[in-house]
Design the sequence.
């Protein structure tokens, strides 16, 4: 069994107990869990905040407008979506796309660290403040940490803006693009 298939199998085993569990549910949110998708042996992992309406509908992360923007930037960085792993800190859509509560970030954090342990990416690119806060387990100002590599358990983490923020303020597109290019380069792309 090759490394990718072995890791894929380990991820499936990790997800199994959560599939019929209420452990990951958010207050008033969806009951549909979206674990993530992509290469289970990826060198780079993208982590967002939580699924949105389109993600909840299709049970895939980053498939709405933000996902289309992320795909476009990945393509510009000569990186295929299938080569990376994409997930969210919170695996269930909060109601009305509200920001996840701290306890919801914590629930998602535990599972996320198990995913990271299996995938063993070289670089994690967090998309938005909530993803970084969930990963670091503390409040942060994304504007201060954006673009600076942080070492976390032997993995380099590059915080950047969430694509949804860029859709609201397109003037920052070049910043997000540059950060994703840097993360891909550091991961060996």
Sequence:
């Amino acid at each position: 069994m090759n490394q990718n298939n072995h890791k894929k199998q380990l991820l499936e085993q990790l997800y199994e107990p959560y599939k019929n569990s209420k452990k990951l549910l958010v207050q008033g949110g969806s009951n549909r869990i979206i674990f993530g998708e992509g290469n289970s042996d990826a060198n780079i992992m993208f982590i967002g905040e939580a699924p949105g309406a389109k993600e909840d509908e299709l049970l895939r992360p980053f498939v709405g407008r933000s996902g289309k923007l992320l795909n476009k930037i990945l393509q510009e960085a000569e990186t295929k979506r299938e080569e990376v792993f994409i997930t969210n800190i919170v695996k269930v859509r909060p109601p009305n796309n509200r920001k996840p509560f701290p306890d919801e970030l914590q629930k998602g954090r535990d599972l996320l660290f198990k995913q990271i342990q299996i995938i063993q990416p070289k670089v994690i690119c967090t998309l938005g403040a909530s993803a970084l806060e969930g990963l670091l387990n503390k409040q942060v100002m994304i504007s201060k940490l954006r673009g600076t590599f942080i070492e976390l358990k032997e993995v380099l983490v590059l915080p950047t803006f969430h694509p949804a923020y860029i859709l609201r303020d397109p003037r920052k597109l070049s910043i997000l693009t540059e950060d994703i290019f840097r993360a891909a380069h550091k991961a060996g792309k």
